[in-house]
């Protein structure tokens, strides 16, 4: 039986659907991505996108350096061909009539395409999460337009990156003039609730600009912690019914290196060029990057006594508690586990 | 009406917010978690009426909603037996 090396690294995250790439990035050539320090090759066939361990069993070459031919992934080194199920179906160096050893196969990872993203699950273990991907209704809603922010590499632990997205308090400072206003920094009291397998905040009224267009007003923010590496945000202007939503997915590449994927949806200004929203999101992520990369410790402390929390941090508190309860260790600092009764 | 209070030490994160808001009501235990001074976190002795405003400030300012307030004494076995 094959050993799943990543199982030891973080069995919880390995059992999650993690973002691997935007679907539009995978065209006719194989592409290597890095997830939990594992090299994964993605390639497109007539039947969709497949994900293999990026390793030829013959001599260990990266399959992503090869090519896709007739729905098979061809190793660049000796031309071995692997079909969509990962089975080697051709070894050019031996006569066609000779049996191909059953061991000649690639490690295949569960993979699916949803919301314009490729999602990969590294663990094939029984404990792997059976939960489907959470809903992001805006993606399929014809009254919304969704754009893809450019993928962004950040030298920070993935839980730090997700928590920053969930942090309502920083908008007025890190994004002053873009999203927030330091003259309106106070955050009204709110609570966080467990609902349908995710954490959802109360509506948080924030004086903000939704998208850098200068339309300052009170926006109703709602944060949702969907999974350890997946969150969403909805900003609603109740007066105009304009809604700005985001799905935020983080790929933990290494312990202190992550890749951000963000879907940005709006039900207004549909004629505005998409590039505006892509550029604006890049500006926001760049502003976040400098601060998040500066955080110490680099790993997110799950011991709630390790940093100081205030009532506006309730989403962050819920996130840290959930990671702790789930047993996430990758990118997290677990020094002290307080006994949890609930 | 008398007020009783207790700190849920299971969820307390020892941030010190309650002690700052109501120093006459809350102190730290040996592990650093908050507890009610007057009855050692049993929730059985009513607090002084003069401190009720401080109590509400402390409850509202607790980031983990660990400060419980009641008009009746607490049955606090579950919260104290850790």
Automatic annotation (TrEMBL), chain A:
Keyword set, alphabetical order: 2Fe-2S, Iron, Iron-sulfur, Metal-binding, Oxidoreductase
InterPro entries according to UniProt: ARHD_Rieske_2Fe_2S (IPR015881), Cholesterol_7-desaturase (IPR050584), Rieske_2Fe-2S (IPR017941), Rieske_2Fe-2S_sf (IPR036922), VanA_C_cat (IPR044043)
Superkingdom in the source lineage: Bacteria
SUPFAM superfamilies reported in the protein's UniProt record: Bet v1-like, ISP domain
Gene3D superfamilies assigned: Naphthalene 1,2-dioxygenase Alpha Subunit, Chain A, domain 1, Rieske [2Fe-2S] iron-sulphur domain
Gene Ontology MF, one: monooxygenase activity
Chain coiled-coil ranges: none
Domain named Rieske: residues: 17-120
Name recorded for this polypeptide: Rieske 2Fe-2S domain-containing protein
TrEMBL record, chain B:
Keyword field: 4Fe-4S, Electron transport, Iron, Iron-sulfur, Metal-binding, Transport
Top-rank lineage group of the source organism: Bacteria
GO molecular-function term, one example from the UniProt record: iron ion binding
PROSITE patterns reported in the protein's UniProt record: 4FE4S_FER_2
Domain 4Fe-4S ferredoxin-type residue range list: 3-31
Keyword Coiled coil appears in the UniProt entry: no
Cofactor(s) for this UniProt protein: [4Fe-4S] cluster
Pfam families assigned: Fer4_13
InterPro entries from the UniProt entry: 3Fe4S_ferredoxin (IPR001080), 4Fe4S_Fe-S-bd (IPR017896), ET_Ferredoxin (IPR052395)
Keyword GTP-binding among record annotations: no
Function description: Ferredoxins are iron-sulfur proteins that transfer electrons in a wide variety of metabolic reactions.
UniProt name for this protein: Ferredoxin
Annotated source species: Terrilactibacillus tamarindi
């Amino acid at each position: 039986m094959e050993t799943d090396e990543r199982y030891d690294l973080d069995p919880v995250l390995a059992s999650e659907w993690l973002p691997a790439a935007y679907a539009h990035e995978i065209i006719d050539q194989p592409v290597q991505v890095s997830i939990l320090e594992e090299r994964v090759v993605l390639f497109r066939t007539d039947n969709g996108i497949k994900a293999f361990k990026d390793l030829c069993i013959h001599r260990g070459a990266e399959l992503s350096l090869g090519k896709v031919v007739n729905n098979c992934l061809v190793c660049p080194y000796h031309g071995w061909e692997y079909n969509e199920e990962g089975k080697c179906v051709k070894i050019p160096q031996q006569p066609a009539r000779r049996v191909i050893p059953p061991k000649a196969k690639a490690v295949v990872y569960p993979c699916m395409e949803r919301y314009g993203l490729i999602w990969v699950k590294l663990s094939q273990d029984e404990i792997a999460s059976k939960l489907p991907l959470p809903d992001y209704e805006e993606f399929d809603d014809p009254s919304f337009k969704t754009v893809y922010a450019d993928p962004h590499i950040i030298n920070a632990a993935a839980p730090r990156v997700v928590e920053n997205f969930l942090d309502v308090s920083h908008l007025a400072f890190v994004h002053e003039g873009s999203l927030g206003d330091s003259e309106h920094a106070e955050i009204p009291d709110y609570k966080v609730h467990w609902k349908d397998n995710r954490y959802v905040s109360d509506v948080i009224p924030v004086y903000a600009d939704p998208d850098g267009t200068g339309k300052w007003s009170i926006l109703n923010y709602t944060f949702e912690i969907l999974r350890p590496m997946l969150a969403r945000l909805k900003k609603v202007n109740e007066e105009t019914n304009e809604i700005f939503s985001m799905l935020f997915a983080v790929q933990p590449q290494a312990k202190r290196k992550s890749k951000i994927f963000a879907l940005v949806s709006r039900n207004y200004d549909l004629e505005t060029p998409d590039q505006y929203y892509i550029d604006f999101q890049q500006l926001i992520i760049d502003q976040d990057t400098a601060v998040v990369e500066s955080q110490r410790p680099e790993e997110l402390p799950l011991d709630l006594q390790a940093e100081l929390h205030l009532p506006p941090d309730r989403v962050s508190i819920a996130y840290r508690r959930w990671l702790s309860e789930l047993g996430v260790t990758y990118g997290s600092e677990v020094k002290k586990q307080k006994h949890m009764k609930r | 009406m008398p007020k009783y209070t207790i700190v849920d030490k299971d969820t307390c994160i020892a941030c010190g917010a309650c002690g700052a808001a109501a120093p006459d009501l809350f102190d730290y235990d040996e592990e650093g978690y908050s507890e009610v001074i007057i009855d050692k976190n049993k929730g059985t002795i009513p607090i002084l009426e003069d401190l009720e405003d401080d109590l509400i400030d402390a409850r509202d300012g607790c980031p983990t909603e660990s400060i419980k307030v009641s008009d009746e004494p607490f049955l606090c076995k579950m919260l104290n037996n850790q």
